[in-house]
Amino acid sequence: MTTTQTQPQIQQWTNLAQQLRVDSIRCTTTAGSGHPTSSMSAADLMAVLMISYLRYDFDNPKHPNNDHLIFSKGHAAPLLYSMYKAAGAIDDAELMTLRKFGSRLEGHPTPALPYVDVATGSLGQGLPIGVGVAMAGKYLDKLPYHVWVVLGDSEMAEGSIWEACDKAGFYKTDHLIAILDCNRLGQRGETELGWNTAAYAARAQAFGWHAIEIDGHDYEQINQAYAEALQTEGRPTMIIAKTKKGKGVSFLENKEGWHGKPVPKDKEDEALQELHRPARSMTFSVQKPENLQPASIPPAKAVDLPRYEVGSSEATRKAYGDALKALGDADGHVVAMDGEVSNSTYAQEFAKAFPERFFEQFIAEQQLVATAIGMQVRHYIPFASTFAAFFSRAYDFIRMGAISRANIRLCGSHAGVSIGEDGPSQMALEDLAMMRAVFGSTVLYPSDPNQAAQLVAEMAKHDGIVYLRSTREKTPVLYAPDEKFTVGGSKVVKQSAQDKVTVVAAGITLHEALKAYEQLKGENIHARIIDAYSVKPIDEETILAAAEEAGNKIVTVEDHWPEGGLGDAVTEVFTQRDGPMPQVVKLAVQSMPGSGTPAELLEEAGISAHHIVQAVKALI
């Protein structure tokens, strides 16, 4: 389609673009660090977007029909903050606090500002998350808001970008518009493709996108591209804009060596004079969205969790699927996604019952987590599942999710040597450590299906990054269906006044510990057995009491490497308090496993009942 521009409109775009450049220089020079040149290249693109196309109510950042603007190139935060100033959302005094201690204007955007949906700055993440937001808009909210994602050309080398392109094309997210600021220069020189905009366009088209190549400093082309993107149906749009880094200042424009460097104080006036600084202190109105509401969802009701009879056997991964289905029935805000293993994680139970709320991500674990983060932006309750080992591919998204203050639930199945014959490539042996290290995370490892079901229900109510590790093998049902389990709790499964040692286990190793208990009991050796199903936060009170009452001797046993898992979680309880340190023996997987039966591998790893008995005897 074609549009016409009036001279006043062009002048308004020009005024805003120059103001954005001026402010990007001013705030970074004051800060003494930052990325002014990466901000200046996209200023014309953002000026047209902000004045003519963005629909956002800055007085109501939670308006459900607001557009979403995500800076995937998060280092261009000075440009984003300058836009907020131009819109009147922040003032100039706050803009000048960029990168200062205590400021909301951090070096890369975070939700410390209410207008920022997610933290970016680790490149390759904004577009994948934008895809998740766009999926929510199209399939759940059923609202016409647009998701605008500003990309840098350096991050187009990230595999996560192309996972996102693939899923956006597959799900036909036509309200997703990616704006590629192709300024040719990365951190150390020219980017992989330089100004080869045709190559980017061909790649986007191969993934089912509508692609538009433009001069990113030509207002007419920018305006036409946005109008065309808004008219495109059935597929997302990528606008590939050829731009110049440092545009508008002669000693910065298209010059190498300026990435991530502010204009020195003694050169600031020279730069600002080229941008006609005196005329650049205006406020520009942003159009508000239509007052539309998301598709209605029935009020939540009580969750009717599955029940498993004591004495029977079931895998905790099956309990995860059953409980997830029960949550979905109780609350329409619960959504699920999986990495093409839902018949193993049992997320298929949810998918069969609620196909309209299940989003297959195929073998794309980065996009799996990104989709969950995007959907929680829209206040849904996402559960994402795959084999525990494969969350390691998405770890950067998980740690950035914590910075985003994201509320997502992750379930990793098939963990540890107990999965058996598949061998070490499928055995998560570092996942507990990995997830414990995430800021504010919760890490759960149930041993029993009734326990697992209760904890899945708890996950839905819990904030932050919540991870549940499930077991492949069927194990005996230990707890009655009405037994209660809470985050931060544990269960003392066996105890007596004669206990001489405490064994702390979780998941599959609890069953080994109970076998060891029976052997030890037959030899008149009394051991306390603790089911530490909440690995983080761990039940400090119960562990401290056990140490005091049971000889100050502890054996921890886990289907995990010795570093960072359950054993370290228990040991840390005692390093954070006064008093004598108990004797702690950590049983964990010490050597690289191979293939075998679960029983063979537990024995070989030194975490079977046999080895627990030996460790207890040696300790007492």
From TrEMBL:
UniProt xrefs under CDD domains: TPP_PYR_DXS_TK_like, TPP_TK
Residue ranges constituting the Transketolase-like pyrimidine-binding domain according to the UniProt record: 314-477
Entry-linked Pfam families: Transket_pyr (PF02779), Transketolase_C (PF02780), Transketolase_N (PF00456)
Keyword list, A-Z: Calcium, Magnesium, Metal-binding, Thiamine pyrophosphate, Transferase
Gene3D superfamilies in alphabetical order: 3.40.50.920, 3.40.50.970
Essential cofactor(s): Ca(2+); thiamine diphosphate; Mg(2+); Mn(2+)
Binding partners and assembly: Homodimer.
Family of the protein in this entry: Belongs to the transketolase family.
Protein's UniProt name: Transketolase
